[in-house]
Amino acid sequence: MPLTDAEIVALKEPYGRNQFKVSDGGGLYLLVKSSGRYWKLAYRFDGKQKSLAFGVYPAVTLEDAREKREAAKALLAQNIDPGELKKQQRIEQKSKTADEDKSLANEIRESKTARAAALDPAEQAMIEERRLNILQLLAGSNGYSTNEAVLHAALNAQNYNVSSDRLRTDLAWLYEQHVLDLKIGALWGAHLTQSGLDAVHGRTWIPGIKRPPVKESC
To answer: Could you tell me whether strands 145-147 and 48-57 are parallel, antiparallel, or unpaired per DSSP bridges?
Structure first.
């Protein structure tokens, strides 16, 4: 017989059993488990027994589940497997989400590029000098490592007067260039990489970081 909401609410998992099914008719049933009540549809397609999940009660109501059952039956009448259709829709949605994430990443990258291009040459030079200074501070630190608080104090002592957000932006940019590693937490930690050390000593040049002065040999 068809289920009622009162019957569903009254259902309890029998002692000694992990789960059991309660039919609503037409292949629709409620799988009762200790973790919840799950709507399922049992159906046959191409000679194979299959099942289709409709969601969890009461988020998916009795009426919702019946509507989903009728929709699935309509697909079966057209020789369409509702389970395979749902799987394909899920794959397409994941692909769409991945494309949207990629598009957003491209927009952010283009925005950063545009902002960099719009900077005044003097401002850009100051940023590049500050980035080199951060690397130099790390190079002079014990174990080539320190934290943002130490860097912030050192930079401001040299009259850079940067905000914490500005410093974190610099650190994130330097991390993207692989010249330092970051340990993200309440207080960011930074560690100079070999590429960063090479940049400090002028053995390599990375656009966006000021070239250090060339030391004249005696």
So the answer is: unpaired
Burial of 24 (0-12, 13-18, 19+ CB in 10 A): buried
CATH number of 5-80: 3.30.160.390
State the DSSP H helix or E strand holding residue 25, giving kind and residue range, or none if neither: strand 19-25
Q: What fold characterizes domain 121-200?
A: Arc Repressor Mutant, subunit A (1.10.10)
Give, for 113, the enclosing helix (H) or strand (E): helix 82-118
Chunked into runs of 10 residues, the chain (218 residues) has average pLDDT values of: 87 76 92 90 93 93 94 93 89 77 66 60 90 96 94 93 91 94 90 95 93 68
176 Cα distance to chain centroid = 17
Please state the domain extents for the chain: 5-80, 83-118, 121-200
What distance, in Å, lies between the first and last C-alpha atoms of the chain?
99
Q: Could you please report the per-residue DSSP string of 142-181?
A: GGGEEEHHHHHHHHHHTT----HHHHHHHHHHHHHTTSEE
Q: Is the four-CA dihedral 129, 152, 108, 100 of positive or negative sign? A: positive
CB 82 within 8 A of CB 54: no
> Are 55 and 39 in contact, with CB atoms under 8 Å apart?
yes
Query: What's this model's pTM, rounded to 2 decimal places?
Result: 0.47
Q: How many CB atoms lie within 10 A of CB 83?
A: 17
